[in-house]
């Protein structure tokens, strides 16, 4: 037992990769985390990544798990198209598949097993079909032999394998309730039923699969909403409190579910339906405070949204609201214009300040109080310097004027002496005149 523990402690479940990885990786399948040492999200992923390495090793997976410091080996990271941290990629031959799902152990392992396996997985029997259908909420199946449609199916699978599984089967493997108008065909099984791809009605196969890879009704969160942006659909959401069992909360959720189920043929090409627990995320998205429960329709392509102009009482009201959006009579709010972008900057800045002060008041005071204090001191110094300079200049001018007065007029003593001097000169003149007069008399 002690030897087993020692071996387990020395085992390497996640390999640190360097520049030699580029040359040695071609014969293996690698699941790699490209990280940066200073990245907070990378540090948060690290324990999860270690669990992924342990689990993949224990299950005997052919996928090797590694991590690479993308800042130290930036040339290799750039070659694989790494643009942010952390970036998770599965490298299989000459192909690199990006992982875009939640950063949990189970989701990452599911992604690795799906992409590392066969691109198209055959279903040889009805028993196997039933087993796979129980495991997957959405199931894509190609039915038929070799054809141009199968070639297109394989091409789409190589692109979208990061999101979902792709299977193939013969017609006799399918359940008896399935009726296909012709072969070959591509069928999706979901929501307790099935839908057949029609090139004329559904357009490009890749776009159709991308739209249909979600169930008709979803529990929507931030990540799901981000993924739904790729479908080009509007997203109709009942924003409720899952913990609140009041009639109004359950009623709005039921209305959305009924529309998703009963009006699929009318709206499924343009709308995705679901509910969201709480309004925090939706408030940050709309930059508004929505009172729950409520219904909102989001256009993720241009950040517009629609709110009903009347109370939604039943399914008919919801259908009318959707039709108003489709025919352009419903008022769109938000968008991605210049004013909305400015509003977004202000809103994000305000939210950041508030969140910092809520989480750590002392840190908030330091981060925002210190710069404000420095700026205040600088402004005070500038204003004080200007005021003192003005006083000194004024005093200097007064002193200069005073000096000029003293220089021009002289001191009081000099003025007195000058007066005495003038008096003396005048007295001598008078004396001389007097002497001349006296001489004339003689």
UniProtKB/TrEMBL annotation:
Keyword Glycoprotein set for record: yes
GO cellular component: cell surface; endoplasmic reticulum membrane
InterPro entries attached to this UniProt entry: PDI_TMX3, Thioredoxin-like_sf, Thioredoxin_CS, Thioredoxin_domain
MF (Gene Ontology): protein disulfide isomerase activity
Composition-biased stretches (Basic and acidic residues): 391-407, 429-442
Amino-acid biosynthesis as UniProt keyword: no
Pfam families, sorted: Thioredoxin, Thioredoxin_6
EC top class named in words: isomerase
Reactions this protein catalyses: Catalyzes the rearrangement of -S-S- bonds in proteins
Domain Thioredoxin residues, every copy: 2-117
UniProt-annotated location(s): Endoplasmic reticulum membrane
EC number: 5.3.4.1
Keywords: Disulfide bond, Endoplasmic reticulum, Glycoprotein, Isomerase, Membrane, Redox-active center, Signal, Transmembrane, Transmembrane helix
Main location: endoplasmic reticulum
Compositional bias annotation for Acidic residues: 408-417
Membrane topology qualifier: Single-pass membrane protein
Stretch list, region Disordered: 391-442
Cited Gene3D superfamilies: Glutaredoxin
Top-level taxon: Eukaryota
Family statement drawn from the similarity comment of this UniProt entry: Belongs to the protein disulfide isomerase family.
Function in brief: Probable disulfide isomerase, which participates in the folding of proteins containing disulfide bonds. May act as a dithiol oxidase. Acts as a regulator of endoplasmic reticulum-mitochondria contact sites via its ability to regulate redox signals.
Name this protein carries in UniProt: Protein disulfide-isomerase TMX3
Organism: Anseranas semipalmata
Primary gene name: Tmx3
